[in-house]
Amino acid sequence: MDLFERTEQVRTGAGERAILVHMDLPDAFGREDLEEFHHLVVSSGVVPVAELLGKRDRPDPALFIGSGKSEELAQLVRQEEADVVLFNHALSPAQERNLERAAKCRVLDRTGLILDIFAQRARTHEGRLQVELAQLRHLASRLVRGWTHLERQKGGIGLRGPGETQLETDRRLIRDRIRAIEARLEKVRKQREQGRRARDRSETPLISLVGYTNAGKSTLFNALTTGEVYVADQLFATLDPTLRKVRVPGVGPAILADTVGFIRHLPHRLVEAFRATLEETVNASLLLHITDCSAEERDDNVASVNEVLEEIGADQVPVLHVYNKVDRLGDAPRLDRDEQGRPWRVWLSAREQQGFELLHQAIAERLAEHWVDRWLRLPPEAGRLRARLHEAGEVLAEEAGTDGAMLLRVHLNRVHFERLLREAGLSEKDVSVPAPQVAEGSAHSYNPERSHKAG
Questions:
Q1: Which element (helix H / strand E) includes 168?
Q2: Which residue range or ranges hold the Hflx-type G domain (predicted)?
Q3: Which candidate, 321, 331, 314, 328, places its Cα nearest to that of 271?
Q4: Please, what's the b/e burial string for 22-56 (b: 16 or more CB within 10 A of its CB; e: otherwise)?
Q5: 116-136: pLDDT as tens digits
Q6: In 3-state terms, what secondary structure has residue 320?
């Protein structure tokens, strides 16, 4: 049995019978939600047949749950004929090994369970590489558990002597495989950087959807983009990032990105493995933080997402909070503003497509500082600038003046606007004019009745 066949044995399988173990521990030692644990277990495809609950002041160094509970666990495994024991906590390699010896059954901790779910859900080549990288890093510290024969050195004719142990061979194979995956993911990262540079050149804003898993990100993404991202009422229904070009009223073209859902105490190895994917979040112009407002633990979920955003360096990106599933509360969609009057939180229902006009309004206002919406008076010699503005499709209205000048209303990205002015040798002060109702009295060349929308 080779290394990767043994790796597959660690994963849970559909239809397996599982014992769930949850200990009530003080916050200092980690807290996990039991209901969320049930959702994780069901999402993995195993069948929970029994629970072992308890309370401890601190985990036991050897068995985590203590010797008494470990004997109770072994009896429960025999009684229920369980195939695997799933812990709602992070276990050390030694604790996993000791628990497997006591229960005579495979043991997976919370991190291993989440890795298994990710392995089942990854569809793209990049996603599978990222999951395999996280699994190998997790497995590297657990090679000794259950495979004591690996500690023996190779023997036989021609192989005697101080040769490499099987355990050392496996560790070397894992290191080599990790390096190979990291090199391939580095190529993916460079490809993403090229795509981002192209977006930067066009000044197209990137709006990234983030949030707790099962909060409705993919449902909202599909409603806004008419996309076909897989949607299901389960944790981590989608892993692979999806980008679509959309047109936001009041903003214009934008890129909308749907990312992997977060979870409380998301394993650090997964954050590291998915860093290339999460860079779409770090480089976003605006984050839409999607929250299930009907969930009792919504405040804790928001805090968990914020922790991950801080870990990946996205805590400085502007955020608009979107409280989804407002229909479950029986409330109407609404828009909340902060002390400065800026949109702060939008309450909507992605499934019922209620409150989308408020969301568009909030996005437009939050991105307004990056955009210019004003009237310009271009002199006759600025014909090239006028043509460039039309090429970009950013002219909303236009009127010819009697002196050959042109009055235009433009809406475009500020960086793009300033670059076009520099190329034409003009400044914003040179061409900016008041709005039409003011311009009509001061600029007789403007006739509002003849104004038309640019086609």
A1: helix 166-202
A2: 205-371
A3: 314
A4: bbebeeeeeebbeebbebbbebbebebbbebeeee
A5: 887 777 767 777 887 888 888
A6: strand
